[in-house]
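Re: the request from the purification team.
They wanted to know what the chain is likely to look like in 3D before they choose a buffer screen. I agreed to run a prediction and write the result into the notebook, where they can find it.
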Amino acid sequence: MGEPVIDLNADLGEGFGIWPLGDDEGLLEVITSANVACGFHAGDPSIMRRVCAAAAERGVVIGAQVGYRDLHGFGRRFVDVEPAELTDDVLYQLGALDAFARAAGDRVRYLKPHGALYNAIGTHEAQAAAVVEAVRRHDASLPVLGLPGSAWLRLAAEAGLTAVPEAFADRAYTPEGELLSRREPGAVLVDPEHIAARSVRMSVSGQIVAIDGSIVDVKPRSLCVHGDTPGAVTVARRVRSALRAAGVDVQPFCTPQADDHGD
């Protein structure tokens, strides 16, 4: 068998107007895929343009991070939106980011839901199907990121989309393989060494230790390092360094821009 291969993704472009959030430039020097906020939970046109241009310049793959229409709550509150409306909202976000990606000489190459939407479509069949429908209508060749075992990835695969399992380097897991709620203590991890060790284990053995000590199989193709946590760039650098030291090849999970220049 060859060496393990893993993608590193992070959430970027999550400021709004004059309010910055995270070190986008710093993370773009480390990650291989950028989940760019599309204006509904965070971000605005100018931020989307800047992040897409910076990602394209560095050869970082651009992905659409779509969410509920919830700027005030940063997209971390469930919205009981009708499926047809959710499809339209996701299509709107995809189209907006793709315009900026193409202006930068690339295009949107994958989709990842954000926050409460990400969590909801793990089990909410109607909303998961609505997001799948949006991707299918926009570009059925786009891969989608999600948790292994989620309704979202199952329905995406059934619709013919490329479903890519991911794991979270800096989030605690429940024994059921779900992310521990951010309302719970210890849900977000901050120690770079601990996060790096977890990342190596997930990438090499496909396993993570849940909060009760049980072993959960995750088998990710991509690892997420959150960009809005303190010291995110330091954490991302330590993760990448540890992966390389363990013989893991850090590569994007989908085609980089050099292959087709966004045509």
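For the purification team: The chain has a mean pLDDT of 94.
Please add any questions underneath this entry.
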